[in-house]
Amino acid sequence: MADTIELKVLVIGAGISGIAAAKFYLDIHPDSRLVILERDTCVGGTWNSRRGYDSFWTQWTVGTAEFSDQPMARPPDEDLYYEFFRAKHTTKYLETYVDSHSYANRSLRDRIKLSVEVKSVLKRDGMWNITATQRQTGSQHIFRASKLIVDSGLTSIPNLPLLPGRENFSARILHHDNFGSSKILTSPDVQNVTILGAGKSSADMAYEAVKSGKNVTWILKDTDTTGPGFFLSPKGKGPYENAFEVGMTRLAGSFSPSFMNGINGWTSFLHSSKFGVRMMGTFWNTIDIEARKEAKFDRKLSKGFEQLAPHSPIFWQNCTGGLLNHEDFFDTIAENVTFYTGKVTSLGNHRVLLNTGDEVSSDALLCGTGWVASHLFFSENQCRELGLPYEAIQGNPEEKKHWSELEAEADKKVLNTFPQLADPPSHYEKSACQTAYRLYRNIVPLCESTVAEGDRSIVFIGHVGVGNYFRAVECQSMWATAYFDGKLELPSAEEQEKEIALFTAWNRRRYLSKGQRGNTMIFELIGYTDTLLRDMGLSSHLKGWFKDIFATCWARDLKNLKPEFIAKFGYDGVV
Question: Which InterPro entries match (predicted)?
């Protein structure tokens, strides 16, 4: 019989989001009975020790990849590249962080239950009832909590493709999730490595395999795909040491047509006037041309390297992408990797067969094929009521009509404000099998949700596609705590719906296939976090108009928000 554990707060997930959410809630409510459930064997989510490998580097830089209350120790020079660093330092930082924060004589680590997978969630008698299973033993636990924080992330559950004949392959098939812990590249039995996928994880595995002395073949899909990812130089310009520092400025954010980055005279000029639109078109086209020129996709004597060229312009972000962490990446891949574009039709004994008729000899098949939804413990009906994606065909006709009308009206506003979004280039567009996220501020269900019962008892942290989760989830966690405690006055349900519909319509126009899920904010991170802080009336992160526009937003800029939050909302006795 399953034991039942009574709690004040249950947190699902011990990655960056779960750690941030638990930490800030306990900052304000240090005596609360709070537990964190983690399905993996270690903390850190994407950045945990199980997933790590030598050429796994961060996409963020020193000074931005940390929480505001605890700086990360600077990595040694050999682990730095334009201030980007090996992922193991983020892993170490998060491990240290959960040990160094204690409340009521219990550290964050003491509150984490590892290898516990949530199976179902049900709201009953004003409490969230969470059924979970210990993965090693199969024993079942039931947790009852008055508040639920869902931090299960976007990269928790691997998406493995259907591979006919995999039982005949007689070799290893691994998803990127298990690549770091597999040690497969040190095996003398593995000489021919095949990569599936077109994004950053595939690129990392291909590079690592080449550097390990393997014969590498990289297969790109020929249909139903947005194409290979954009891999950009990390180098900065002017006073900025790297590209990430540029991206972490409000000035850079203003170059993307977005409501979240503010509608003012400057952004209206850039994105609504004919001259501004042409100027921005030239700006983004220049970045696109420079990126392709640096890659030298047309180089001779390569083994199909030109097939790695992105299909759509960088502005639209229709494909995956990332910043390069190795100066020799393009040369290494072009000179050592054989490319095929096609579909895997079947697997044979150490063989991968394609619809082109090509046959690839393979001792290991490494899949950088993305992730599936990490909120599978909610039913379809719960997803609908909470504002999570669900199968579009499951919605009732009236609800579909309601959202369709809202989004159609919102789409008119998007195109009136940002006319350039009406004319995307020719591109592959993924069909939307599921609805978009419909969370207010990308955090909470609509206030009249029948599951949440309007009682402010559930939040979702980290369910957004941004370039720096540290800043995003630190601000989300403050907003969520204020929301839990009734400190935030939200607009009416009707106004919330209009804002959600506007964000959804804009997302689809701005980010094409990637925007279908309604949670993409590639160039909107600073605007998004500014919005959350403005909702709470907090301003200590601001540095004066000139720096606010041109200066990089560092983690340390948020360090005074906690005392400001406590004073603003009158939490007596909290320090």
Answer: FAD/NAD-bd_sf, Flavin_mOase, FMO-like
Give me the domain span that covers residue 252: 160-369
Give strand ranges (E) for 28-166: 34-37, 57-61, 80-81, 84-86, 102-103, 106-107, 112-113, 116-124, 127-134, 140-150, 157-158
What is the count of structural domains for the chain?
2
Q: How confident is the model at residue 535 (pLDDT cuts 50, 70, 90)?
A: very high
Q: How many whole angstroms separate alpha carbon 19 and alpha carbon 99? A: 11
Q: What is the pTM of this model?
A: 0.95
pLDDT in tens, 49-59: 999 988 899 99
8 Å CB contact between 454 and 536: no
The verdict on 142 and 275 lying in the same domain is: no
Q: Which two tokens stand for residue 193?
A: 């490595």
Rounded to an integer, the average pLDDT of 518-535 is 96
One domain, residues 278 and 195: yes
- Name 155's Cβ contacts closer than 8 Å, sequence gap at least 6: 45, 46, 371, 374
H helix runs in 361-429, sequence order? 380-386, 397-417
**Could you tell me if 202 and 100 lie in one domain?**
no
Question: Are 236 and 286 found together in one domain?
Answer: yes
Write out the two tokens for 101: 């924060």
Closest C-alpha among 528, 534, 524, 459 to residue 24: 459
CATH code: domain of residue 270: 3.50.50.60
Write down the H helix ranges in 453-492.
469-484
Residues 379 and 353 in one domain: no
The DSSP secondary structure of 152-179, one letter per residue, reads --SSSEE-PPP-TTGGG--SEEEEHHHH
Which pLDDT tens digit goes with each residue over 202-226?
999 999 999 999 999 999 988 767 8
Q: Where do the H-state alpha helices sit in 42-150?
A: 88-100
3-state helix/strand/coil string of 316-343: HCCCCEEECCCCCHHHHHHHHEEEEECC
